[in-house]
Amino acid sequence: MPKSPKFLFVGSSEAYSGKSAIVLGIAQQLQAKGLDIAYGKPLGTCLTRTQTEVIEEDVLFMANTLNLPKERVLPMLLPLDEITIADYISSGGQLSYQQQLQSYSQFSASDLVVLEGAGTLQEGKNPAAEKLTGYSLTEVRGRPLHDVIHHTRPDGRPYPLEECPIDRAFPQNNQEQGEEVFIHRDGHFYPVAYTASPIRGGNGVVGTIIEVQDISERKRAEAELQRAKERYRAFIQQSSEGIWCFELEQPLPVDWPEDRLISAFYQYGYLAECNQVMAQMYGLASPQDLIGARLGEFLVESDPNNLEYLRTFIRSGYRLTDAESYEVDRQGQPKIFLNNLVGIIENGLLIRAWGTQRDITERKQAEQRLQLFADVVRNTQMGIVVWQLENLEDPASFRLLIANPAASNVTGIEFERLIGTTMGESFPRLLQTELVERYQQVVRTGEALDLGEVPYAQDGIHAGVYNLKAFALPNRCLGLSFENITARKYTESQLQQTQYFNQQIAETVPGILFVYDLTVG
Fold first, then answer.
1. pLDDT score of 103 more than 70
2. Parent domain of 512
3. Domain limit, last residue, from 158, 189, 218
4. Taking a C-beta distance cutoff of 8 angstroms, is the pair 305, 326 a contact?
5. End-to-end Cα, the chain, rounded Å
6. Among candidate residues 162, 157, 134, the one with its CA nearest the CA of residue 146
7. What is the pLDDT of residue 114?
8. What whole-number distance in Å separates Cα of residue 165 and Cα of residue 486?
9. Residue 30 is inside which H or E element, if any?
10. CA-CA distance, 519 to 521, in Å (whole number)?
């Protein structure tokens, strides 16, 4: 009783995917188990033509490798070259033609394969095509392909056949490729990638093979990617910080010595991208005026601060947060930026660095002026203290914020240990004087007051006379400057008494002349 053979089909959605290697491996293992193997390739693509036959090179290789007798090598159903569907129709009959097309459909690498002869949808539609279009073969047999799935544009306008690029393959005898939008049976539009290839026979072009792939998912992914790019661009351009990317013309090994890396940074580094904010930080109107500039045009190599900045970048694993760089703008003016940056490393090589920066030049200059003023206050011989009035209606809520060393020297009070206390806690008797009302007045009005000479001997303060001035500061703060003028007042009093005594003598004893040398203490 003859054997009933079983069939194993090996196919792939892509060319050169290793089908032949898989078949060869399976066949050799089955032969080793004692099974008889036959091999065939229904669609011939690697063809060599002789005077008597068309040879499929994969079939020849497989037959020789597996030592297959001729009867175990199945013939091709359809060689895809000059032997065309038209030749089969004219010589093999309608049944043979249907078998060829069915075989081609089974092995199609695309979602849709149709055969179009003279503008008519032929009977080569596969199940994937039916799923893709929503139409069965019975519904579309004999109808022009264009009239079925390509007759209307997405905006509703008609799509004339003469404008259809897919249809050009037949009359122009050229392969056409591109993207179009088809109409599903249920009426929705969907994007496709197509390849329309003319079928050439002995009498010229007799039809068209159209391969189509639904690219809806790809289009959705591309649209989302485009939206992401637009969001990224909007973020870059609307950010209040300067955003930049420095590229290296030559990737650098991250394990190079620091000095060699820093030298290479300056040699190969250039600004590849930045936003509008960064361009304005350097006094330029557009990012294009800045892109392409070398690293050395930003970080002056002779500045030790910048070399330390780059060393810290390397030592921190090519990532920095709140790092200061000292640069110059296009007018040569010094700039100080606060940077956050990260290096992009691939396979042990530094490729580029992305970063953000804020211009802190004015802030640093203000800090320097503030420090200079603080140094002056700290070293002046006049006492200075700062109070903050927490409750405008309650003078006891004045809280001590700052006092310079001279304040303690002048008053004998250790102001340092009183920082943070209220006036009610530290100087309760002062609240019983009219001074606190004047202090409140200064805070409310913002106008300074010269309180003149004030005698005071309470709350542990050295008894004496103080020259006192009050001035307003931001955030309901009050500044007081004072000096102890007790000794000076005593000297002035003594001098006045001496002058008065001498005057009395001069008026009583005629002929006496007094000469005063006021430069002598």
1. no
2. 492-521
3. 218
4. yes
5. 145
6. 162
7. 32
8. 105
9. helix 19-32
10. 6
Report CA-CA distances (Å) from 416 to 374, 405, 407, 514. 16, 8, 10, 50
CA distance 395 to 439: 8
Please name which of 200, 179, 203, 207 lies closest in space to residue 191, comparing C-alpha atoms.
179
Residue 223 lies in a domain: no
Give yes or no for a contact between 473 and 447, defined as CB atoms under 8 angstroms apart.
no
Beta bridge partners of 270: 247, 294
Residue 331 makes CB contacts below 8 A (sequence gap 6+) with 283
Q: Does residue 519 lie in a domain region?
A: yes
Helix (H, G, I), strand (E, B) or coil at 291: coil
* Number of Cβ within a 10 Å radius of residue 68: 18
CA distances to 19, 44, 135, 420 from 55, rounded to whole Å, are 19, 8, 37, 100
474-488 pLDDT, tens per residue?
999 999 999 999 888
Does pTM top 0.70 for this prediction? no
Same domain (yes/no): 437, 497: no
Hey, is 94 helix, strand or coil? helix
Asked whether residue 4 carries a pLDDT value surpassing 70, the answer given is no
How many Å apart are CA 341 and CA 303, to the nearest integer? Answer: 20
If we measure between CA atoms, which residue out of 404, 367, 398, 400 comes closest to residue 383?
404
**Residue 327 counted as domain residue:** yes
User: For residue 259, what pLDDT is reported?
Assistant: 95
| pLDDT for 416 beyond 50 | yes
Number of H helices, E strands in the chain: 16, 19
In degrees rounded to 5, what are phi and psi of residue 165? -70, -25
> Position of tokens 């088809």?
182
Token pair in block for residue 507: 């008026």
Residue 369 belongs to some domain of the structure:
no
Query: Both tokens of residue 277?
Result: 């904010």
Q: Enter the tokens of residue 321.
A: 């947060």
CA distance 248 to 295: 10
